[in-house]
Specification:
18% helix; 4 helices; 3-stranded antiparallel beta sheet; 11 strands; alpha+beta
Amino acid sequence: MSSPSGRCFYFGCWNKPGHFLAGPDGCWPGREFARLEYYGEDRAMHLDGTLAPRRMRGTDELCWRGMGDGRIEYRSDECPEGQFLLHVLDTGYTAIQWWDRRQGDRRGACNSTILLEGQHTAEEMLAALKEHFPHVLANLTKAGVTLVEVKRP
């Protein structure tokens, strides 16, 4: 499957600690695209860990911090590495995000995000990841982590 067209970005650790927005060349894409780190009403939500899947403690209920309930982080646990959620954001981009400690930082709350301009399926997002950010996929594969979509009920 070929990758869909559209601008593609990565947000996460790039072979070192710290979460950054990067283009396919690994460089910061510039001020024009810095706005993509934020979404939601008044662009109040930051990408960092807010779209990755979590489960409410004591249940199997799927949630993510970007749902708007600030208590979710304290009442839920991260899903296993590699499980991702697909989101169509109000920025005009589709995102997949997962918990990821294989990109240069092994601490808790590390996550990776692929952003692709337009509305796309999970398969298209994975194709874009493979095309534009093969090192991210290689790091996951080397660690035995497979990307799998978590379906919403």
